[in-house]
Amino acid sequence: IPGVGHKYYLQFTTEDYRSRENSGSCLATVLFEKGNSPPAVTINCVDTKDEKQIQEEDNKFYQKIKQQTKPIIANDIPDSYGNIEPAFEPVWALAVVGSSKIMWEKSTENLSYSMAQVKSVKQWIREDDFIEFDYTVLLHEIPTQEMISCHLRVIWLPGHPLKVKYFCASENQWFEETSGMESGSAAGILQEKEENF
To answer: 180 or 163: which carries more pLDDT confidence?
Structure first.
């Protein structure tokens, strides 16, 4: 678009994180405006799973984490051989969802990110039903091949929006955002005072 930027039209399929099965198809437009980041995204997806199945999977995932008798504390997920212990798979999955917000915020038309590793994670025990984790994650920056360290806090309860706050080593301010605006396993916004972060 002359004087504005580049607009892309995308059609793609999504897959279930764990089973790798096709979980839906999406149509999207992505506008990279000159000098602006993140891109403006409009997306419409059709899930192959029904809403009840998604809610059941979210609840199973949530219960697995809530059944922990001690706070989860771990380092290097995956390990140096690329392995993730089964007990840490939910922790990794939540980090992937939370980190997707950072990757979207920081990506440009010529720069993208993927999550390489959870360097450390600590679960906070809350008196309410929400689950809360602090992460230090490494993002792989492409094409520079640099590894960017980010601190990430994720707060979630099934049926409620996911809350994500982050700070990356190359920045000097905290960002509080969400990964979507719909209620569900990884979307929307919750209110919490900044001093509780």
So the answer is: 163
